[in-house]
Design brief:
5 strands; mainly beta; 5-stranded antiparallel beta sheet; 4% helix; 1 helix
Length: 90
């Protein structure tokens, strides 16, 4: 484990994209995800103060949804349409 200030990084070399994950050094919450082959760092939306200005881009893992989960019929893409792509806004 590498310690870089307040974020504690854990390497995941056997993951699909050699991710490394950043956790809060104080409480252990998952904060960020970074892949070696990406110019982007993925930030856990739940860590941001409101208002975030974020919008839902699609619904992931809907094929794993329980029968009690209500996935809105909002026209946003689901699983297969999202697989293999990352949507980014500037």
């Amino acid at each position: 484990m590498l310690d870089r200030g307040a974020i504690r990084w854990i390497e995941s070399p056997e993951s699909d994209r050699a991710y490394r994950r950043g956790f809060c050094g104080a409480c252990g919450s998952s904060l960020v995800l970074e892949a070696d082959d990406s110019d982007y760092v993925h930030i856990a939306a739940g860590t941001l103060d409101r208002p975030t200005g974020l919008r839902i881009a699609g619904h992931w893992y809907t094929h794993h949804a329980g029968d009690w989960d209500e996935i809105p019929d909002d026209g946003l893409p689901r699983d297969d349409a999202l697989a293999g792509s990352e949507r980014r806004w500037t």
